[in-house]
Amino acid sequence: MGVKSLTSKTDIFFDLDHTLWDFEKNSALAFNDVIEELKLPFSTEAFLSHYVAINNEYWDKYSLNQVSKEELRIGRIRDTFAKLDYQSTTEEMLLLGDNYLKAMPNHNYLFDGAIEVLDYLQDKYKLHIITNGFNEVQGKKLERSGIAGYFKTVTNSEMAGVSKPNPEIFNYALDKAQVKVDQSVMIGDNFLADIEGALGVGMDAIYYSQSKEKVIPQIYHVQKLIELKDLL
User: Fold this and answer.
1) Closest Cα to residue 198, out of 6, 1, 68?
2) What is the rounded CA–CA span in Å between residue 78 and residue 89?
3) Is the CB of residue 197 less than 8 Å from the CB of residue 219?
4) For the chain, what is the domain count?
5) Which of 115, 140, 195, 228 is at 20 to 30 A from 208, Cα to Cα?
6) What are the φ/ψ torsions at residue 206 (nearest 5 degrees)?
7) pLDDT mean over 60-68
8) Per residue in 79-116, pLDDT tens?
9) Are residues 37 and 100 in the same domain?
10) Structural domain that includes position 57
11) DSSP structure string for 213-232
């Protein structure tokens, strides 16, 4: 296959959003709640048609320390409102953003196969989370989706003071888990943050992407979570 065997691993680090937790589906449901609650003059579909790409761009910038948490939270709403030609106040933007973050953990769809794979892996490995998500939201997502109990440690970017792909968050997570890098593997959907970040500290990685195209042939790639059972 041209890639290293993973049989010597003892610890697995998962990304959360877009990997186990179905971010796009849960996010859309949360925004629908808030847009209805605030009686905003546009549909959820119209809002999301602009917001999804804008949000992804802001998270990439946040990962690279190009914007702060506060700039991310207000900027993604402000830029979406601008695309919709909707005149608003900073107060209303912050209210939408805050209410969205509160509503987000109320919807907890996981990707197909997530529970089956976690059940399978927990008997063979110690499982952990490394996420760039916000502290106040990620814990609720894990608890309310019923998967918190699978993970020995959870590391987020606010704890570590930096975001993936910065090597420091991976080293922080390894120290917290008390495991060596060569015994560990990272599983995630974001090639920059998860895969390049892990490789940057010498950690093996598995790229979870529903696209059929392999970005680098030397890296394991799964299109469905259930395929992890064949690798690990």
Assistant:
1) 6
2) 9
3) no
4) 2
5) 140
6) -120, 125
7) 89
8) 999 999 999 999 999 999 999 989 988 999 999 999 99
9) yes
10) 24-106
11) --S-TTSEEESSGGGHHHH-
Spatial distance between the Cα atoms of 206 and 228, rounded to a whole number of angstroms: 9
Percent of residues in the chain assigned helix, strand, coil, to nearest 5: 55, 15, 35
Q: Rounded CA gap, 64 and 144, in Å?
A: 29
Last residue of a domain, one of 106, 129, 151: 106
d(CA 217, CA 219): 6
Q: Where are the alpha helices (DSSP H) in the chain?
A: 23-37, 44-63, 69-83, 90-103, 114-122, 135-144, 157-160, 167-177, 197-200, 228-231
Give the contacts of 174 (CB within 8 A, at least 6 positions apart): 180, 181, 184, 201
Q: How confident is the model at residue 214 (pLDDT cuts 50, 70, 90)?
A: low
- Residue 46 in any domain: the answer is yes
Q: Looking at the whole model, is its pTM more than 0.85? A: yes
140 exposure class (CB count in 10 Å sphere: 0-12, 13-18, 19+): middle
Contact between residue 185 and residue 9 where contact means Cβ atoms under 8 Å apart: yes
77, two tokens: 């709403």
The span from the CA of 158 to the CA of 166, in Å, is: 13
What type of residue is 152? K
Tokens found for residue 59: 């998270």
Longest dimension (CA), the chain: 56
Q: How far, in Å, CA of 214 to CA of 218, rounded?
A: 9
Same structural domain for residues 100 and 124? no
Is residue 137 within 8 A of residue 105, CB to CB? The reply is: yes
